[in-house]
Write a structure and sequence with these properties.
Strand 1 and strand 2 form a beta hairpin. The chain contains 11 helices and 5 strands. Strands 3-4-5 form a 3-stranded antiparallel sheet. A two-stranded antiparallel sheet has the order 1-2. It folds into 2 domains: 160 residues, Ribonuclease III domain (Ribonuclease iii, N-terminal Endonuclease Domain, Chain A); 65 residues, Double Stranded RNA Binding Domain. It has 245 residues and is mainly alpha-helical.
Length: 245
């Protein structure tokens, strides 16, 4: 589904953008992906948050996020099979889940400067929505989806292998998800299991943001994300970072 303006809406970071500024943002996104779009409307849509889209959000990046998520999983699965030929399905599955998780993608997207490229409504921009982990992760997947539709699987693979190279290199062994790791930490020390509590729910109904606190004794960690599960994982990771090994 194409948007009317191939460069996306005229709002980003809460300011009206001049054509030259919008063109520069679009060119920066193409350079980031390593591809000049034959159908620029795809990239314009990928950079459009629901709040800046037309009525009902029909021109937002959500559809492209849907296909980008599937491309992401396939590319990373192929990469892991190649890189770890002796590992079993369970080990590969844990690696895959860690690499394609929302928090992990948000870190990658933040490092790529994606927040400065996304178009959001002025009101949401004032709230800092473009820098939220869930929005960054969704935008990353949407850009990947646009790249796949415009240039095919090889281009998507090449981009992802550049973007995720550092994250893959850091995976020395198959990781455990933070909630599992935190539970095992408590069990080894005969402590009560972690207790997760929703502290706050913010944002509109179509794009909620959850803040969750987890505690073991007096030690506390907090996490914020666009789903309860992702916020729990973020909170568990924050608490693990504070605890002794």
């Amino acid at each position: 589904m194409a948007v009317g303006n191939p460069l996306g809406p005229d709002v980003t970071s809460g300011l009206v953008k001049k054509p030259a500024e919008r063109a520069a943002r679009f060119q920066a996104a193409q350079a980031l992906l390593g591809h000049n779009f034959a159908r620029p409307e795809l990239l314009g849509q990928a950079l459009t948050h629901r709040s800046a889209a037309g009525a009902g959000g029909a021109d937002s990046n959500e559809r492209l996020e849907f296909i980008g998520d599937r491309v992401l999983g396939l590319v990373v699965a192929e990469w892991l099979i190649e890189r770890f030929p002796d590992e079993r399905e369970g080990e590969l599955g844990r690696r895959l889940a860690a690499l394609v998780s929302g928090p992990a993608l948000a870190v990658v997207a933040q490092g790529l400067g994606l927040a400065d490229l996304l178009s959001v409504s002025p009101g949401e921009a004032r709230r800092g929505v473009a820098a939220l982990a869930a929005v960054l992760a969704d935008g990353f997947e949407a850009m990947l989806g646009a790249l796949f539709l415009d240039a095919g699987f090889p281009a998507a693979r090449d981009f992802l292998r550049r973007a995720l190279a550092e994250a893959v290199e850091r995976q020395v062994g198959p990781p455990k998800d933070p909630k599992t790791a935190l539970q095992e930490w408590a069990l080894k020390r005969a402590l009560p299991l972690p207790d997760y509590v929703v502290e706050a729910t913010d944002g509109p109904s179509h794009n909620p943001v959850f803040t969750i606190r987890v505690g073991i004794g007096d030690a506390v960690g907090r996490g914020t994300a666009g789903s309860k599960r992702a916020a729990e994982q973020a909170a568990a990771r924050a608490l693990l970072d504070r605890l002794p090994p």
